[in-house]
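Q: For a teaching handout, I want to show students what a protein-ligand complex looks like in token form. Below are the inputs, and the small molecule is pyridoxal-5'-phosphate. Please produce the holo structure.
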Amino acid sequence: MSIADQAPAYIRAISPYVPGKPITELAREMNLPVESIVKLASNENPLGMSPKAQVAVENAVAGIERYPDNFELTRAIAERLGVAMEQIVLGNGSNDVLDLAARVFLAPGRSAVFSQHAFAVYPLATMSAGAECVAVPAKHYGHDLAAMGAAIRPDTRVVWIANPNNPTGNFLPQAEVRAFVAAVPKDVVVVLDEAYNEYLAPADRADTVAWIREFPNLIVTRTFSKIYGLAGLRVGYAVAAPEVADLLNRVRQPFNVNNLALAAAIAALDDHVFIAESYELNRNGMAQIVAGLKRLGLEHIPSHGNFVTFAVADGAAVNRKLLQQGVIVRPIGGYGLPNHLRVTIGLERENARFLEALEQALR
Ligand SMILES: *Cc1c(COP(=O)(O)O)cnc(C)c1O
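A: Here is the structure, written as tokens, with pyridoxal-5'-phosphate included.
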């Protein structure tokens, strides 16, 4: 007998999250200089963080002996979104608020519905809470909302939706998402994960947060990890009806977002120049990579995020050959896509390096 056997079976059944390979790890393994490695594996912003956020972090170092006060960031987000401060829940990354939603609404004897090929954190959060996963087959790699609606059981309390989805990049038209939220039973929470919201073309955007007034069972989550370039600081948030936000805040660790992250996020939120630059770079880089994939005769899944997933004959083999050349992308066999790889849109020269290495890997 091992003491590990004493953990509930639903905890022991969890498959660990597999992160993108760190640059430093590949450098050690391949004996390559760190500077020579191109990492396009974790949907990070290739421009780094906003210069304003950087200054804010430096200034916040004085004061690090104090516990954080999340008032200012909460107020800034609430103001930006036109909601009450009582509707905002800050997280140590948006992962944290996804987990809070699971802990509040899921438990053994309950279930959560999500799509095949959807973000890996949904089964993790669901299982951590002891609830059952109901994975619904994807349609063209994306969410099949009709099938997801039909999969809702009497014990279902959460539906997870990523829009756009990671790792496939699929985007559901906002009207379809709204109709889905309107149609789900009122005792089922819909968590709408919008980690890539800021990368959407203007025509694809919608004020999803405003829907919460009409649908108190809707939780919208966003993050500072992607376009805002603060993945390493860990800050994200949920917007919810006040009574839902209140519950999430009760299970939240009181000081889950640190001083540096709070300061950086406040500054980043207002750096419109950096956001516009990041958006533009992503659009151009996406065109560059998509053109390159087509040139190599590879199929890709049209993406609305800052990454694109493409098909190869043998995902593991191509990934290995890319790593040997110092290029890190994301194998997504764990998402049920063993012959696809996901590449994050990088700087123009990084995208070019990736395409060259890929051409080499396919030879
Ligand atoms: C990256 C990502 C997140 C954000 O994770 P953080 O914890 O905020 O860094 C959330 N959802 C999806 C679908 C993502 O791809």
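A: Two things your students might notice: The pocket of pyridoxal-5'-phosphate is lined by residues 43, 93-95, 119, 162, 166, 193, 195, 223, 225-226, 231, 236 (CB under 6 Å). The first strand starts at residue 38 and ends at 39.
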